[in-house]
Amino acid sequence: MYVHLGRGCMLQSFQIIGIFSVGEDKNFYRNLKNDKGRFYEVEDLSEDGTVDSVILTKDKIYLSAISALTLQKRINQNLIYNNGGNNGREK
């Protein structure tokens, strides 16, 4: 299942480690390091510099103008649709 992050960027949901809402500190992600101790590559998908959420993957951070709540709803809706509404449990 793919999730649209903005500006035509799609990620497979299993690649996403976390989705974070950006609050007052719009640059908190700049100090994050990956498991190899390196700073993450940052891809800015925001519209006119307005960042509402940060999406963390294994190797990259995506900045999006789409809110974290909206992205989470998209993932949840796709899970329900793809699993027939039973959260993957057998009938």
Largest sheet, in brief, is:
4 strands, mixed
Query: What is the C-alpha radius of gyration, as a whole number of Å?
Result: 14 Å
Strand content: 25-35%
Strand count? 6
The share of residues in helices is 10-25%
Count of discrete structural domains: 1
- N-to-C span: 22 Å
Spatial shape: globular
What does this entry look like structurally?
With 91 residues, this protein is of the alpha+beta class. It has one domain (2-82). Helices cover 16% and strands 29% of the residues. Strands 3-5-6-4 form a 4-stranded mixed β-sheet, with helices on one face. A two-stranded antiparallel ribbon has the order 1-2. It starts with a strand and ends in a 9-residue tail after the last helix. The mean pLDDT is 87.
Outline:
This protein is of the alpha+beta class.
List keywords for this structure.
16% helix, globular, two-stranded antiparallel ribbon, alpha+beta, 91 residues
Q: Can you lay out the helices and strands and say which pair or pack?
A:
Elements: E1 2-6, E2 9-12, E3 18-21, E4 41-44, E5 53-56, E6 60-64, H1 68-82
Parallel strand pairs: 4-6
Antiparallel strand pairs: 1-2, 3-5, 5-6
